[in-house]
């Protein structure tokens, strides 16, 4: 699985800051999230997710970022992926501030958000725990959520920021459920609450060609009948198929306009 651009940048940023903290240890305290000192060090709500306590801590979070983040960025695009990553990390900061006044470092909040998003898109994908035991993504994320919740409520810290994990999951869930979604997923049918994997069009692998662009422009500016609506959703499926095969950067301006309009219509409904 090839690495995607934003995942690569985040990996390098985390590794770079980790090397800085090895050379200059005060950087850990400077960049960490300190709830009691939030007014004097507000940057901690963002910088904390790039600081790690040790090599093992860094390695686990970066493996999650690589394996779960890469397919999500391929589907959403780099800008939307980064936005989601930061939202999940900020969610971890918020719950930590509210429930855990101790200092917090690590990308675990963002990492848990990525795992939730992956499970919502590919719920039955097998995740091999320790590289051996296959577990469906939805059950793995549910198990991790329950463990973090129980540990957080019981006050069993053990040096682990359980509320940061919970905050990442909660923020990710709200982001996904409230339709603050990448344009690549706006083609789901009314009533579908959970983002679904990109589906094939009923006629097979059909990408939107340049000859389809005028029709797309016409449909984005004129009233629609029920047949027009069905035709538009079919075309959205084909555009999503194209994103799955070639990436979001391959879309033409007309295809992007079509997705933007469908997104606006879904929000207004």
Give descriptors for this structure.
two-stranded antiparallel sheet; 61% helix; 269 residues; mainly alpha; 2 strands; 3% strand; single chain; 11 helices
Structure commentary:
- This protein is mainly α and about 270 residues long.
- Helix content is about 60%, strand content about 5%.
- The chain has a two-stranded antiparallel sheet with strand order 1-2.
- A hairpin with a 3-residue loop joins strand 1 and strand 2 (about 135).
- Helix 4 crosses helix 5 (about 80-100), helix 5 (about 80-100) crosses helix 8 and helix 6 (about 110-120) packs across helix 8.
- It is globular and about 60 Å long.
- If you average the pLDDT, what whole number results? 80
Total number of β-strand segments?
Answer: 2
CA radius of gyration is: 21 Å
Structural class, from secondary structure content?
A: mainly alpha
């Amino acid at each position: 699985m090839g690495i995607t651009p934003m995942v690569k940048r985040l990996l390098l940023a985390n590794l770079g800051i980790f090397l800085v903290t090895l050379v200059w240890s005060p950087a850990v305290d400077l960049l960490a999230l300190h709830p009691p000192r939030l007014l004097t060090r507000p940057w901690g709500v963002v910088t904390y997710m790039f600081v790690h306590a040790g090599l093992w801590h860094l390695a686990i979070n970066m493996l999650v970022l690589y394996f779960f983040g890469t397919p999500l960025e391929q589907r959403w695009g780099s800008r939307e992926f980064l936005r989601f990553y930061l939202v999940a990390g900020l969610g971890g900061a918020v719950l930590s501030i509210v429930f855990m006044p101790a200092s917090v470092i690590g990308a675990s909040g963002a990492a848990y958000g990525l795992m939730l998003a992956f499970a919502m898109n590919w719920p039955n994908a097998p995740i091999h725990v320790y590289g051996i035991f296959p577990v469906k993504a939805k059950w793995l994320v549910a198990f991790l959520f329950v463990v973090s919740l129980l540990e957080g409520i019981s006050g069993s810290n053990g040096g682990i920021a359980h509320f940061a994990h919970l905050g990442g999951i909660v923020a990710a869930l709200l982001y996904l459920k409230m339709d603050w979604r990448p344009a690549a997923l706006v083609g789901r049918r009314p009533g579908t609450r959970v983002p679904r994997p990109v589906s094939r069009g009923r006629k097979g692998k059909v990408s939107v060609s340049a000859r389809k662009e005028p029709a797309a422009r016409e449909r984005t500016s004129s009233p629609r009948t029920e047949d027009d609506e069905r035709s538009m959703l079919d075309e959205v499926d084909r555009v999503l198929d194209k994103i799955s095969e070639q990436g979001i950067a391959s879309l033409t301006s007309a295809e992007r306009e079509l997705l933007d309009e469908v997104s606006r219509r879904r929000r207004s409904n």
